[in-house]
Amino acid sequence: MDVNFQFDWQAAIASIPYLLDGIPWTLIISFGGLAIGFVIGIVFGLLRISPLWLLRWPAVAYIEIFRGTPVLVQVLFIFYGLPQIIGGPIDAVTAGIAAIALNAGAYISEIVRGGVQSIEKGQREAALSLGLSRAQAFRYVIWPQALRRMIPALGNQGIVSIKDTSLFSVIGVGELVRQGQIYIATTFTALEVYFMVAMLYLAITLSLSFALRLLERRGLVGQ
ABC transmembrane type-1 domain location, by residue (predicted)? Predict the structure, then answer.
């Protein structure tokens, strides 16, 4: 079989301005969803370690459901299935943010649980012995240390969520992959365009990884 193919760098470079239009939506959906997911994660992460089963088991159910099902299925359910329940349409961007928030929230819940439980019990007991209430001991002693330990894992979850937005082209969100699909439909340069899509995703995730390493070097995360 005679294969005579050359990568068209000119076509790849020409696609960049069009692909860049998808980056704002990629960032809005990923970071918007992560912000909401962080709040969800704190709430359900703390419920997860509650001694009261009435609080703990609903948190366990939420975490297992959203960690055990694909984010693609979740966004399809929100975009196509949920409107049948609420009786009205849901915007594609809203569905994407909700899917990232719920999916990331489940993983962040476990990160929060692990971070809080990693703090030695002796520190809590020492804080109580100094006259702090349980809430004050958690707010001023336990949580600040736990948060520092959680940052690397939270950063990794951020990278995962950014990459997950590539799945949302199936509901018409104009993020990077969707922009690439539209451009390919008129230029027939799939290899070059998807190569550039991959490079743009890599640039975003490497930037986040660099920021995390910078925090680690400055001693702002970890132990």
Answer: 23-212
